[in-house]
Write a structure and sequence with these properties.
48% of the residues lie in helices and 15% in strands. It is an alpha/beta fold. The protein folds into 2 domains: 168 residues, Phosphoglycerate mutase-like (Rossmann fold); 52 residues, no CATH class. The two termini are 33 Å apart.
């Protein structure tokens, strides 16, 4: 069986002018993730990421902790769901139907909990409607390209390989739901709980792929205890 590790990026810079960069904690999480992989005896044959900086930097920092040169391929199909675009286009539609959601928007998305509530509503609207009519990428388009990217990695790397894909929470949720044969409306349950730098493991053989485990962050807790650090975060 070949192995794929799906690794979420480290903590980004929520609330800053440029969200798409790792915070100091995010950089530490990425390095500690690489140290965990090294201590666990994981030898990567290849690494992939989207082209978002938080994904690429997490990949680089983690791979710096591993022995040897790990080839890194950037594939934009592993980018995160475009939440900003969806909020801009879809949130007003949802607000017209929900007074509670309208009040949430009116008071402003000032903290990560309120932001998550907005993402919840917008994501579930997105997967249940053909939102291409609003000039944005549809769920069918997005999920289709993510599934195709995974299939291409499996085909290109072949049997007996160990691969890491450094990506984002929405992409990981989409891949996990796909592997489990679930629908778009069942995907959000895997999106909300994804920890920064958590690891999910897939096994594959030929075109067959299965989920081994999801969203493990126990190594961050362990390394945090060893080093006197608080390494676990959602955002």
């Amino acid at each position: 069986m070949a192995t794929i590790y799906l690794i979420r990026h480290g903590q980004a810079s929520f609330g800053e002018a440029n969200y798409d960069q790792l915070s100091p904690l995010g950089r530490l999480q990425a390095s500690r993730t690489g140290q965990y992989l090294a201590r666990a005896g994981v030898r990567l044959n290849a690494a992939y990421s989207g082209d978002l900086w938080r994904q690429r930097e997490t990949c680089q920092l983690a791979c710096n902790e591993l022995a040897g040169d790990v080839p890194h391929t950037v594939d934009t199909r592993f980018n995160e769901i475009n939440n900003d675009e969806q909020i801009r286009k879809l949130a007003p539609l949802i607000a017209d139907r929900s007074e509670a959601f309208k009040r949430l928007l009116e008071r402003g998305i000032s903290d990560s909990k309120d932001y998550q509530k907005v993402i919840d509503a917008v994501f579930n609207y997105w997967v249940s409607h053909d939102c291409s009519e609003y000039g944005i990428q549809s769920w069918q388009q997005y999920s289709g390209q993510v599934h195709a990217a995974l299939a291409d990695v499996m085909r290109k790397e072949g049997s007996g390989k160990t691969i890491a894909i450094f990506t984002s929470g929405g992409t990981i949720a989409t891949l996990v739901a796909h592997v489990l044969g679930l629908t778009g409306s069942q995907t959000y349950q895997f999106y909300e709980p994804v920890f920064n730098c958590s690891v999910s493991q897939l096994f594959y053989s030929g075109e067959k792929v299965s989920l081994s485990y999801f969203n493990d962050r126990s190594f961050l807790q362990l390394l945090g205890e060893e080093n006197g650090e608080q390494l676990v975060s959602y955002r």
